[in-house]
Structure formats: structure tokens, C-alpha cells
Amino acid sequence: MSDIESRDRRLEHKLESTRAFIIRSKGSKIDSLRSKVDLLRLPLVLSTKSISNRKSQLGVIWEKGGGSGTGVARKLRPPPAFDMDNESTYSGYSYKSSHSRTSRKNRDRRDRHRLKNRDGSIRGDKSVMIQAPGEPLLDPESTVVDDRDDNWGETTTVVTGTSVDSISNEDLTRISKDLEDSLPLDCRRYISPVLGAILGLISVITPLAFLALPQLLWRDTLDPCGTPSSYWLFYGVRVLEPQETDYRGIVGYAASLVDALLFIQYLALVLLEVRHLQPAFCLKVVRTADGVSRFYNVGHLSIQRAGVWVLDQYYRDFPVYNPALINLPKSILTKKMSSFKVYNLEEENTNNSTGQSRAMIAAAARRRDNSHNEYYYEEAEVERRIRKRRARLVVAVEEAFTHIKRHQDEDTATSSPKHPRELMDPREAAQAIFAPMARAMQKYLRATRQQSYHTMESIINYLQFCITHNMTPKAFLERYLSPGPTLQYLDNNRGRRWTLVSEEPVTTALRQGQVFSLKRLDFALVVKVMPLPFLDLAEEFIDPKSHKFVMKLQSETSV
Amino acid sequence: MSFVPGQPVTAVVQRIEIQKLRQGENLILGFSIGGGIDQDPGQNPFSEDKSDKGIYVTRITPGGPAEVAGLRMGDKIMQVNGWDMTMVTHDQARKKLTNKREDVVRLLITRRSLEEAVKQSKGSHPRQ
């Protein structure tokens, strides 16, 4: 009786200790997560005053100063914290979702340090806000932020990270969706890779733990406590309960676990990567603001992944969006309507009674429609002006480049002592030759409405870059004569917020005829999915000797 | 005018003698030829058999020596001064006709109307 009681007591004691052990480990994990959450909640409170201050700093100082100046290059201060976030041009892109876990962890640690001493400086992030119309993932906090400020560009959400273990990926999306409502926006992105890392670590340690635990808990029979992993449950029942003495069996069991994990890993690899790579659909991406479109071939992706991928290509392929370029037609049409004194019929008038506008439209229709004429001549005039200024710019730059020459070391002996050449480093050389071309450059940029994208500082930097690498004037000018990809104008410490809008749940795979769009504040990218045609490729062999020809002449000679 | 390969060609021919006319440096005959074994016979508008690669008269200068001598458009030239014209290239035919040392060319030509006329005469006037 007594030994049974003692055994029972020992049993309970052991049970308690293991329960405590497991709960403690879980608890510490949760505590660590909670501490991370508290840290990140702090710096997100922004006063509206600071936002309005930043807004007032917009604008290009160089342009205002240069308008009254002559060709002399003045040392003007470029606008501080150069944020032109109204348009979609400058944005930071510092995070790529599919990089390795370790680099993400390091960046995660670094960013937490940075977050601690933020003072309103803007951190760069690219975010994809996944929003299905039925269930908004945006918490009320972020919508308020959206209303407050257009420049608040670094809000982030979770991009479902591509982790190698497919089980942990599904867990992550589930867990991250739960956590999104409670956490502030900034750390959302790091939750999924961190959790993936933790789960991966557990799965690595598990086989070793399987082998180690019998040693630790040898003499005790235990009930398995409700751990989520089915392998642990099985282990607890099969091994720990009957106190398995056959160590080889345990090792075999651990080996089978490793095999299963390896199999899952490769299956995930196949599913995630290989299926994604093989092209199956053609996406047509059209920018709503100016109609620039591109076509891309993708594989079997979900709408989310396709959206992220399209955005990556957008920054490289699409020329930068210049809202100033669209203003021309309106000015033409307002000229036509100026005789009616009030209304431009191209714009929406919400405070206009429909009867009045209809009368206006009818009157306008009766007038002879000459707006196309004016538009045509105005376009021709603008074109001519641009071409003239471009010619002046090209000539000025070519001449400026002839003023400097790279100094060769063997010339030192031959240069005459009467004219000692002053040696300059690239920065000084760039500043020296910038002066004669400054005015022509400025007028050209203003004609093509690019003056907001290039400050004087940036031009001199680029000039210095070109001089250092022995580029010709044409190579230097190429950057200004044609609008480059959006990536070229990005400032790397800013964030860009996009919204994925779709009529179907965004985790569904791409299908023919689907349309979704990626919205920014002032324009959107509409993506249409078209399937690639099924190709029936036949092969035919042609014998090279079978190429024979006959003459087919019919000449007539007079004799 | 079709021929069977290996069999001798038979045709009703007309003799035509053309005096060459001197025009400055050149001696001209006043007509144009087409055809030849190196030409495309399918484009010949005058031949009955579109695989006939013989030399045909394609154009006649009005009032020229050929018209005066009785040559007509669409005639097939069988011989020139004794040289065969049924199996020659276009350039060989031209050379035979434009020999500078000869003032006169004697042609043997055939045309469909000749065949018709002979048949009619045979039919209407049986041989006695």
C-alpha cells in the first residue's frame, strides 16, 4: 500500500514538474512576443502639427531661385528631407520579402533598435496592404492615419513570407492574421519571419530533443500535455509512457521525423517555387493615370503574390509618373469654355444643377467645335519648343564636356611650366563645367516639366559620376532626355503604400479573366489576367539538298 | 504544235524572207521575240501548249520589214537561216537573228491558221 502511495506521489510530482516546464516554456515565448509588441507601440503617435510642417517643406527651392537667375550656378539649398510624396515617385524600398531568414532576423533586430530612437524621421518600407472587400484587414487605427496625412508612407503590413517549411507558412498566415488587429502597423511585417524562425528552430531541435528527453525523464511515466505538434503527442504516448528502453527504436523514430520534415521541405519547394516559375498567364498592367502598359508572364500564383511581383516589376519597367504632363489638354479645353465664363465641361461639377449644365452643353454643341484645332496647334507649339530647348541643351553639354580632360600621369613632364594645370577632383570638375550648361538644362527641364525630379545637387552629383567613369555627354544627357524607371527616382528612406483591391479573395490562384488593381493615392495599376495560349509545336526536318530553284523569266527582245 | 519527246516534230510552215533595214549603226528586223528553253513557258500568251518553250513573235513594228514580209504576231519561229529555233535559249535565238554579217534572214514559221487552212483544204478538196 505504502509503496503504491509513494509511487503515486512521485508520479504526481513528476507530472507537476513537467507540466510546469512546458507551461513555463510557452509562457516565456508569449512574454517575449508581448515585450516586442510593447516596444513597437511607442513611437507611432504623430501629432498633426509635425505632419503639416513636413507638408510645408515640399517644393523645389532650386526652381524658384533659378527662375530669376542668369546662367550662373548658385549654391542653393535643396529642399530638406526631400519628400515629394504626393506623387508616386519617391519611395523607399528596403525590404524584400523572400530573402533568407537569417538576414531578416538581423534586420529585424536592427530595426527594433532604430525604432526606439525614432523622432519622426521616415523609415523606408514597402508595404502591400491586402484588402478584400468583405473583410477589411485595416484596423481603424490605420484608416485614421490615412486620412490624416498623405505623406505617411511607411505603414506596413505583413507580406506573407516565403518560408521553406510549408506547414509553418500556413500557421504564420493564420497567426499573423490574428495578431494584425492588435499590433501596431510597423512590426507586422516582422512577425511572420520571426514566427517562422521560431517554428523552424523547434522543428530542428525536435529530433535531438526526442533523443535527449528519454535520458532526462527516464523513470517517469507521463501523460502528454497538449502540445500542438502531433509528433510530440505521438512521442509522448509511444515512448515516454511505456518507458521505452530500446534506444535504437527511438533513434529510428527520430530519423523518421527528420525524413518527414525533409520530404515536406522539398514538397514545399516544388509547390512554391517550381509551380510559380513556369509561365502560365500573361498579366497586362495598365497605369490608370497615363495609360502606360506592360505585359508580364507569370506562373501559377495567388493574387497576393502576383500583386507583389507586379509591384517589383513596376518600379523597374514603368517610366516615372509625372502628373504635370497631363495638364495640357485641360488648359486647351478651358480656353474653349472660357467664353461661357464658368464651367469646364470636362470636370465634374457637383454644385451644378443638371438643368443648367444641360443648357450649357446644348449651347456648346451649337457652337462650332474648334477645340481640336487649338489642341493640335498647341501640341505642335509645345513640341517645337521642347525640341529647340533640347537642341540648345545638347550643344551646351557637348561644349561643356570639352572643357575638361582627364589628366594622365605621363603628361606631367610635358606640360609647360608657364601654364601649370590645376588638378581637380571629380567634384570640382563637375562644378566647374556645370556653370555653362546650367541655364540650358533648367529651361529644358522646365519645358518637359521634369524640374521637380532633378535638383541642382542631384545634377552635379550625376555629372561627377559621369566624369569619373569617362562617360560621353550623350551618356550624361540620357538620364534627362527620357523619363527613367520609377526606381531611379526613389529615395531609399521612404515608404510606399499600395492597396490591393480585388473582387475575389486574394489568396485564390490566378484565373483567366480576373481583374485586380493595385491602388496608390493618385493612380492605380489595373491588372488583367490572360492565359497564355496552348502551343502545339510541330517539328519538321528539311533536307538541305532539297533547296532547288528554277528561273521564271519572260523576257522579250526586239530584233 | 505540241511535240512528243523522241518523235520528230511535224508542222505546217511558211517561208518568210525578211530584208534587214539599216538604221544608223544597226540592222533591224522590226519585231520582238519571246520564249526559249530558259524561259517560263506558262506566260506565253500565243502558245496553245503552255509547256512549249519555242520562240514566238510577240510584237511587230508596224510598217517594218517583218510586217512587210508577212510575219504576224503569235508566229512560232521554227528555223532561222537553217538554224533550229525549237530548242534554243532566248539569247541564242537573239544572236541568230541579229548576225551583223547577214542582210537577209529566212525564217520558217508556223501558226495555227496554217494548220486550219491545210485541214480545210484537205477536207474540202479530197486528194485526187
From TrEMBL, chain A:
Assigned keywords, A-Z: Cell membrane, Membrane, Transmembrane, Transmembrane helix
- Indicate the transmembrane segments per the record: 190-213, 250-272
Has UniProt tagged this entry with the keyword Ion transport? no
Q: Read off the InterPro entries from this record.
A: VANGL
Record field: compositional bias (Polar residues): 87-97
Bias (Basic and acidic residues) occurs at 117-126
- Biased composition (Basic residues) is annotated at 98-116
Just give the chief location class: membrane
> What topology does the record note for this protein and the membrane?
Multi-pass membrane protein
Q: Where in the cell is it found?
A: Cell membrane
Record region (Disordered) = 67-152
PANTHER family per UniProt: VANG-LIKE PROTEIN
Q: Which family does it belong to?
A: Belongs to the Vang family.
Q: Mind telling me what this protein is named?
A: Vang-like protein
Q: Which organism is it from?
A: Ilyodon furcidens (goldbreast splitfin)
Gene name on record? Answer: VANGL2
From TrEMBL, chain B:
List the SUPFAM superfamilies hit by this protein, alphabetically: PDZ domain-like (SSF50156)
Do you know which InterPro entries this protein is assigned to?
PDZ (IPR001478), PDZ_sf (IPR036034), Synaptic_Scaffolding_LAP-MAGUK (IPR050614)
Q: Which SMART domains does this UniProt record tie to the protein?
A: PDZ
| UniProt domain PDZ: residue ranges | 15-112
Q: Which domain of life is it from?
A: Eukaryota
Residues covered by region (Disordered)? 39-59
**Which Pfam families does the entry mention?**
PDZ
Q: What is this protein called?
A: Tax1-binding protein 3
Q: Which organism is it from?
A: Ilyodon furcidens
Q: Which gene specifies this protein's sequence?
A: TAX1BP3
